[in-house]
Amino acid sequence: MEKDVYYGGQAIIEGVMMKSPTHYSMAVRTQDGAIKVVKESYTSVVHALRFLKLPFVRGMVYLCEMLVLGLKSLTWSANQQTGDEESMSTLEIVATLGLSLVFGLALFVGLPLLLTGLLTADHGITFNLIDGVLRLIIFVGYILAISLMADIKRVFQYHGAEHKTVNCFEKKLPLTVPNVMKQSTIHPRCGTSLIVIVIALSIVAFSVIVDPRWYVKLGVRLVFIPLIAALSYELLKISAKFYHYRITKVLIAPGLWMQKLTTKEPDEKQCEVAIEALKQVVEESPSSA
């Protein structure tokens, strides 16, 4: 495996999506107990235009692409459980992503801002610190609340299976169920860690907003969020690259701790699905040819 080739993915409904730089695969456990796999080629638009490869720019592009790919994968996996083979149109994908973003911004940006305004009359650092802490509390509370749902618990188990499988592969161990089951459910390139970095950076970035008008605070936050997400993406890549250094482990510890909420210990059958998904993209990698 070449050093610049990374594999990862996300949990989907009763399965796992895995992605390489050139392909992605979706594997699910169907209701009859079989594993169904679909593999597709994948080319990021970052490779089409040179300026899209610039730091920060590429982060925003990659994150948007992963949102779209993640939604398509979730939809496909849900359809496998119902027997519906219809795919989402471009308009449906845009509409669903739009509604999801509005909900996320309202819950994790608008609500903390509103509550902070009720808790303090300060408009400087104190305001933004309380706002950041409330944002973290709401995020943790949201994860804890949805984790009580049986279906979400299984998604979190598949999330754990995804991490275990990638960890096994990156240790250059054979992709067998016994080897995968021994691995950690924590991984430094996880999207959960990315969210924690975003929250931490937003506390710092929003501290410069001292205007007392709520609509100015909200507007500047909405402008800052894509920039903070892009910077967080770059920091996540750097931290994963230098993960074995002690100082790096200390800095990224909060993100790893948070993963304990979004991953659960999978069973062997769930790991079988994750292994199959990863094998499909690894065999298409130039480094495995």
Structural commentary:
This protein is 62% helix and 8% strand. The model has no long low-confidence stretch (mean pLDDT 87). It has 289 residues and is an alpha+beta fold. A hairpin with a 3-residue loop joins strand 2 and strand 3.
Question: What's this, in brief?
Answer:
With 289 residues, this protein is α+β, with helices and mostly antiparallel strands. The protein has one domain.
Keywords for this structure?
alpha+beta, 9 helices, 62% helix, single chain, 289 residues
Q: Radius of gyration in whole Å, from Cα?
A: 20 Å
Mean pLDDT: 87
Order of strands across the main sheet: 1-2-3-4
Distance between the termini: 10 Å
Shape: globular
Number of helices: 9
Q: Characterize the main sheet.
A: 4 strands, antiparallel
- In sequence order, what are the helices and strands, one letter per element? EEEEHHHHHHHHH
How much helicity do the residues have?
55-70%
Number of domains: 1
Structural class by sheet pairing and helices = alpha+beta
Strand portion, in percent?
5-15%
The total beta strand count reads 4
List low-pLDDT spans: none
Present the secondary structure layout.
Elements: E1 8-12, E2 15-19, E3 23-29, E4 35-41, H1 57-82, H2 90-119, H3 125-146, H4 150-170, H5 177-181, H6 191-205, H7 214-241, H8 246-262, H9 268-282
